[in-house]
Amino acid sequence: MADPARKAATYQDVLAAPEHTIAQVIDGELILQPRPAFVHSAAATGLTAELDPPFRRGRGGPGGWVILFEPELHLGDDILVPDLAGWRRERMPELPEVAFGTLAPDWVCEVTSPSTASVDRVKKSRIYARNEVRHVWIVDPGTRVFEVWRLDGETYRLVLAAADGDKVRAEPFDAIDLDLSVLWAR
């Protein structure tokens, strides 16, 4: 938690952050993280390539989703930038023309690195749970581990852990097989 004597960070702090960083406000604290390494970006891009056709476009899958890369989310006083986020179409029928969204997603994916793991796994996950994000995926290119967490009351429960070249059906996108080797391809 942020020091109560310290002034809480604001959106103005995010806007004033250096260009080469991802700025987030988490529990009143400005968190600056470097832009992701290429292996991190490759994992997020590979996952987008797998999910987009069947779930956003309905090609080879059920469609019905809006999936965005690094959307800025304003959830109460918190400002988060997940690597990927998705909303069911019935909750977001049209993509709004805004710089940031206030509607909590149905699913987020955080691609972790040693420098972001504690923020992604602990701080951001608490905020996602508080805002009722149903699923959180954690993708770790360093260890080649993939985890699916489902909201269970006020906390998350691990429902899938896989690694390397496993082929999985991962909630909420379990209508297709996901080949994890795509995430680690270099």
Provide tags for this entry:
186 residues, single chain, globular, tt1808, chain A, alpha+beta, 6-stranded mixed beta sheet, two-stranded antiparallel ribbon, 4 helices
State the CATH topology: tt1808, chain A
What's the domain count? 1
CATH class: Alpha Beta
| Overall SS class | alpha+beta
Describe the structure.
The chain is an alpha+beta fold and 186 residues long. It has a single domain, classed as tt1808, chain A, CATH 3.90.1570. It is built from four helices and twelve strands; from the N terminus they run αββαβββββαβββββα. It has helices spanning 11-15, 38-57, 117-130, 181-184; strands at residues 21-26, 29-34, 65-69, 73-75, 78-80, 84-88, 107-111, 135-140, 145-152, 155-163, 167-168, 178-179. The strands form four sheets. The protein has a six-stranded mixed beta sheet, with helices on both faces. A hairpin with a 4-residue loop joins strand 8 and strand 9. The model has no long low-confidence stretch (mean pLDDT 94).
